[in-house]
Write a structure and sequence with these properties.
About 50% of the residues lie in helices and about 15% in strands. It is of the alpha/beta class and about 140 residues long.
Length: about 140
């Protein structure tokens, strides 16, 4: 199986810069797209832009769309694509660990990727202050 295609979508240019940051860690990516939603775009404009990005991809191995927040325009537009196209997985909660997890697992099935992303999302939230304070009490406070 080849690599899945992916799109990163957000309000503003967050998606663009998240992808650039992830590529600093894992290398340049192919068969991917970015959707940035600005305030001057109508919903129809965003639908058109997403369809353009989506249709430019080789989707034969499936497509993952990472969006910033559930219920926002990027997720609503992406959800519509998932309803009208086979092999589309849409996941909200875009962050750098989640994106890196996707980029390092693009050769897996959509179901496996979905499970990996869910695990990565939950494990990437850590209260670092609390962790360091607990370690300080145990005299183990050092850089992780």
């Amino acid at each position: 199986m080849g690599q899945v295609a992916f799109v990163v979508a957000s309000h503003g240019e967050f998606a663009k810069y998240a992808l650039e940051s992830a590529e600093m860690v894992v290398g340049k990516q192919e068969n991917c797209g970015v959707l940035t939603v600005s305030m001057n775009l109508s919903f129809a404009d965003v639908v058109n832009q997403m369809e353009e990005v989506f249709n430019d991809l080789d989707r034969s191995n499936g497509t993952v769309i990472l969006v910033d927040i559930l219920g926002g325009t990027p997720s609503n537009v992406s959800g519509r694509l998932a309803l009208t196209n086979e092999g589309v997985l849409v996941v909200s909660g875009l962050n750098l660990p989640l994106l890196i997890e996707l980029l390092t697992n693009r050769d897996r099935s959509l179901e496996e990727i979905g499970n990996a992303l869910e695990t990565a999302y939950h494990s990437s939230f850590v209260n670092v202050s609390r962790l360091f304070k607990e370690r300080e009490k145990e005299h183990e406070c050092e850089i992780l």
